[in-house]
Specification:
Elements: H1 2-26, E1 40-43, E2 92-98, H2 102-118, E3 122-129, H3 132-143, E4 151-154, H4 156-163, H5 172-175, E5 180-182, E6 188-190, H6 195-200, H7 203-207, E7 219-221, E8 227-232, H8 233-238, H9 247-260, E9 267-269, H10 272-283, H11 300-314, E10 318-320, H12 321-324, H13 329-332, E11 342-346, E12 367-370, E13 382-383, E14 388-391, H14 397-412, H15 414-424, H16 437-444, H17 452-462, E15 467-468, H18 476-492, H19 499-516
Parallel strand pairs: 1-3, 2-3, 2-4, 9-10, 9-11, 13-15
Antiparallel strand pairs: 4-14, 5-6, 7-14, 8-11, 8-12
Helix pairs in contact: 2-15, 10-11, 10-18, 11-18, 18-19
């Protein structure tokens, strides 16, 4: 292990020097972004709403919530200054990397047309770049030669990686700008965000952009999801089972279901990583830190909940995506063989948690949806997922300003947020969308069958004050991956007759892999 640690330090030094060299190499170059068709696709869309809870790199959680107990961070100096006059009306092309399928791209195109009525000289081109990880990998490669896009879908750990080269534009001076911009229709708008616009963002989603340890704003929320508890409402009602609101209640419900259906696995949890991180948040225990010692999850509180869930697994109460070998919605929607009666997964994947309808359009059971169980229901915590967007620095400041105007347009437009949410299953990032007539009509249809996406969205809206976000750093993705592996290992692994030692060793190994692994 000593040799491995020395090697890790040497590799880290080499990596930092290499990135610094790449960053210097691109300074002063004229960024010539390749023009692309607005329907350009580089890779087949491999992303889905299920992936929010399973991708090892889509981490928007570490261990710091947005409550008043979060230590105040001294704000650094932003790296982008708004030129006098703001947007000067010049012709600018901006490129946006995303993962949208055709149905969502159609919605985006409609609003690009609307945006261009206001800013006809800002030419928006988009590229569909496969999955979130594909976006990260492509942007990381392009940063080394200065050909990165203007805007990209992102998760916090992606931005932490881009920050090694200083590639992401800080948004603070744009957000706070009082420059007035004249639009093509003769109306004006403030370049920055008004107090009303800032207040309309769901707080947990907005603060995700500031979770990088320096107090600066790196991203804006675009569309979001979380985890929810899906349950077989028909079965629960028939057997007089109350939906669990705490983990103690969950244990009792699992025991009761096991008595009713001994062959069942009562609970499926799609993401071990999310589960571990969320328990840290709910219990107030350490997970990671953006500064100092990053990997803090090796502690007694975390070992205790892991040991408890191992006992549940040994009793046949639960399984996870890794242990089951697939999304646990397969168990939840099964009509034969082993079944589950509860499933914790992405709110954006509600249609995957619904069983298939028969030829008459009837579903074999009704699905109920609730907030996931809590350690303390009086102070609920649920994970914030789904993409944000970041803006990259460019030699021409007008590209950055044009990018900001477009991002601002999409993320403050109630109509876009409502329509995108209804088409995608993701949750709007604005509170006021709940009062939009079309969205209210959508939510009014909510049920556990044909309109299960509306039911999921309504639960997410009801828990807007529970979302947590967290610091991100280059390595937060590794931490997530390691605790995901750790939990699966501790649930099902052979403890050799000494469970405490087994869990202790598993935690130590996970921290070592974070600090000294590849």
């Amino acid at each position: 292990m000593k040799f491995k640690r020395i090697l890790a330090v040497l590799l880290a030094v080499v990596m930092v020097m290499s990135i610094a060299a790449c960053s210097k190499k691109t300074e002063g170059n004229n960024d010539s972004q390749q023009s692309s068709s607005s329907s350009s696709t580089k890779k087949n869309d491999s992303s889905s709403s299920k992936s929010d809870s399973s991708s090892s790199s889509t981490d928007s959680s570490a261990s710091s919530s947005s409550d008043d107990s979060t230590p105040e961070v001294k704000k650094a100096k932003a790296n982008f200054d708004v030129p006098a006059g703001g947007y000067d009306g010049s012709d600018v092309e901006i490129v946006f990397y995303h993962t949208m399928g055709s149905n969502l791209s159609d919605v985006l195109n409609l609003y690009i047309e609307e945006f261009n009525k206001l800013y006809p000289n800002i030419h928006v081109k988009w590229e569909q770049v496969g999955s979130y990880d594909d976006v990260r990998d492509q942007v990381s490669t392009e940063i080394t030669v200065g050909s990165q896009p203007n805007i990209a879908y992102c998760y916090p750990d992606h931005v932490a990686l881009y920050n090694l080269a200083g590639a992401v534009a800080h948004l603070d001076n744009l957000i706070d700008s009082e420059e007035v911009v004249t639009r093509a229709d003769g109306t004006t708008e403030t370049l920055g965000l008004t107090a009303e616009q800032k207040a309309d963002y769901i707080d947990g989603y907005y603060k995700e952009g500031q979770q990088f340890g320096d107090g600066l704003m790196y991203t804006m929320p675009f569309s979001k999801s979380t985890e929810v508890l899906y349950y077989n409402k028909t079965f629960f009602d028939a057997n007089g089972i109350t939906v669990p609101t705490t983990w103690d209640e969950m244990e009792d419900v699992c025991a009761k279901i096991k008595t009713i259906d001994p062959s069942s696995i009562p609970l499926g949890y799609d993401s071990e990583g999310n589960w571990f991180i969320t328990m840290c948040e709910q219990l107030g225990s350490d997970y990671t830190s953006a500064s100092g010692d990053h990997y803090l999850f090796n502690n007694d509180t975390n070992k205790d909940f892991v040991k408890r869930f191992r006992e549940w697994y040994q009793k046949g109460y639960l399984t996870t995506q890794t242990l089951y070998g697939s999304y646990t919605s397969g168990l939840f929607t099964a009509d034969t063989g082993v079944k589950s009666y509860m499933s914790i997964g992405s709110s954006a994947g509600a249609t995957h948690q619904r069983p298939s309808a028969d030829s008459n359009g009837n579903y074999p059971f009704e699905v109920g949806i609730a907030t996931i169980p809590q350690a303390n229901p009086a102070a609920p915590k649920v994970i914030s997922q789904g993409p944000s967007v970041c803006i990259f620095g460019k030699d021409n400041p007008q590209e950055v300003i044009a990018s900001w105007l477009f991002v601002k347009y999409l993320t403050t437009s109630v109509e876009f947020q409502a329509e995108f949410s209804m088409a995608s299953g993701y949750v709007p990032v604005l509170k006021s969308v709940a009062q939009n007539d079309a969205y209210k009509a959508f939510l009014a249809k909510a049920d556990g069958g044909a309109y299960i996406s509306a039911l999921s969205a309504s639960i997410c809206i009801d828990q807007v004050d529970a979302y947590y976000t967290s610091p991100a750093f280059n390595g937060s993705s590794t931490a997530r991956s390691q605790v995901q592996t750790l939990l699966a290992k501790c649930l099902a692994g052979d403890d050799g007759g000494n469970v405490d030692k087994f869990i202790d060793n598993a935690f130590e190994d996970a921290v070592d892999e974070c600090e000294y692994g590849e």
